[in-house]
Design goal:
- The chain is of the alpha+beta class.
- The protein is 35% helix and 27% strand.
- The protein is built from four helices and six strands, in the order αααββββββα.
- Strands 1, 2, 3, 4, 5 and 6 form a six-stranded antiparallel sheet that branches.
- The N and C termini lie far apart (55 Å).
């Protein structure tokens, strides 16, 4: 009986997590808060594609194909502007919405280093999605779409 209870609980937890990712993000803030939720705990960040637009997902797919199993154009996690994380003081700015486009600035500290990212979002089928990310602070500034566009394979 204990085994059944544990299996049922794990199944329910997995179903709940999958359902949360399948939910549409009705506001830009809801999308960004859900995107960062795993980084604030010890969560699984592998389901990030659920937050990305069709266009951005396509850039990642093309990069994976062209890099032929090697590290592609992106050698870091653009959501945290690093490979590892210890996120503190997350602040999601107010969305600037214009039709089906929005811009949200996110500020946080990663291992005590200030990070500021600007998210370009689009609404696809009633669901807000990340379409591009730009690092706007520090010595190395980048735009995700430009990194993909300038990749050398």
């Amino acid at each position: 009986m204990q085994r059944f209870t544990v299996v049922a609980a794990l199944s329910l937890a997995t179903m709940s997590a999958s359902t949360a990712l399948a939910q549409p993000f009705k506001t830009p803030s809801a999308l960004i808060e859900a995107l960062y939720a795993p980084y604030l705990g010890n969560g699984d960040t592998s389901e990030r594609d659920a937050f990305f637009s069709d266009g951005l997902t396509g850039l990642y797919a093309t990069d994976a194909q062209k890099s032929q199993g090697e590290v592609g154009a992106i050698g870091f996690d653009p959501v945290i502007n690093s490979q590892d994380w210890d996120i503190a003081d997350l602040h999601v700015g107010k969305a600037e919405i214009s039709g089906q486009d929005a811009v949200v600035t996110v500020r946080f500290e990663n291992f005590s280093t200030p990070v500021t990212l600007r998210y370009s979002l689009i609404e696809e089928d009633g669901n807000w999605q990340v379409d591009d990310i730009e690092s706007v602070e520090g010595d190395t500034r980048w735009t995700l779409s430009e990194i993909f566009a300038n990749a050398q394979y």
